[in-house]
Design a protein that fits this description.
single chain; alpha+beta; Jelly Rolls; Arc Repressor Mutant, subunit A; four-stranded antiparallel sheet; 37% helix; DNA-binding
DNA sequence: TCATTAATCGCAC
DNA sequence: GTGCGATTAATGA
């Protein structure tokens, strides 16, 4: 479908972009920058970005590192997490192409409170803080879209508090599955992303073992099917029903 | 292929 | 519900 230009850039020329990643040809129509490209007056803004690639498993935002800008995912998938006590990581959210990473540190914060790791080979667009600030001040539509994004994120984060504190493990795992399904969709009956049981656990706020137990229970009930890392949802409606009685299901 | 890593299950707490 | 450890399956060098 989209055979993007994936040239390997030598480290020496990494700063100079030798493949076309300009916003003009970008296919992420949900990207806030792409969507507002027509409204953005300063043409320099969209071209004044850097592009970096990271391999699967590579961390590109370190917790505590100073914030100098904001990442957009041009291609790939990413998990955002916060490290808790005894090194346990809590996955805050997942993100796919077109989405923003590191936005919480934007504005006043000096340092990132989160870390981000690529779940597969990922290409990122990086906008400097100053350039973005400029663009936001000069483009109401862009600023408005950003505000909507922030509001949405806040809503999701608030409902997640309830999720973790009031739902049973089974419900939390189901909710996580639905979230992944909403975000990444499925391909040939399987969720279009490969996550370890550990990662499901870190998102649902439980342990790997619990996820495995819930998965096998769901498999027995024919609600999902799982082959290794490939998870398929067989009956999404039944899954939704299980958690809808708790009224915690929110589209996010 | 073999070695490493992840998934699963059983069991004690 | 949680955590540990052994077994088995999957992955990758």
């Amino acid at each position: 479908m989209h055979t993007n230009i994936v040239h390997t850039v030598s480290t020496a020329t990494r700063k100079r972009i030798s493949f076309d990643v300009s916003c003009r040809v970008c296919e992420n129509h949900s990207c806030l920058v792409k969507k507002n490209l027509g409204n953005i007056e300063s043409k320099e803004f969209a071209s004044n970005k850097s592009n970096l690639r990271c391999k699967k498993g590579q961390q590109f935002i370190m917790e505590g590192a100073p914030v100098n800008g904001l990442f957009f995912i041009q291609k790939g998938k990413v998990k955002v997490f916060r490290t808790g006590i005894n090194g346990r990581e809590q996955i805050v959210r997942f993100a796919k192409a077109g989405e923003i990473i590191g936005h919480r540190g934007f504005g006043t914060a000096e340092c990132y409170s989160i870390g981000a790791i690529a779940l597969e080979d990922t290409s990122l667009c990086y906008f400097s803080k100053d350039g973005l600030q400029d663009a936001l001040l000069n483009n109401p539509k862009l600023a408005y879209d950003f505000m909507l994004f922030y509001a949405n994120e806040l809503n999701r984060s608030e409902s997640k508090v309830k999720l973790i504190s009031q739902m049973t493990v089974r419900e939390r795992v189901i909710d996580s599955l639905l979230y992944i399904h909403r975000k990444f969709g499925s391909n040939k009956g399987f969720l279009d992303i490969s996550l370890s049981r550990r990662e499901y656990a870190d998102y649902a706020g439980t342990t790997e073992e619990q996820v495995i137990r819930v998965f096998s229970a769901l498999k027995k009930d024919n609600l999902i099917n799982a082959k290794g890392k490939k998870i398929g949802i067989t009956d999404i409606q039944l899954l939704k029903n299980e958690i809808s009685e708790h009224n915690f299901y929110l589209d996010s």
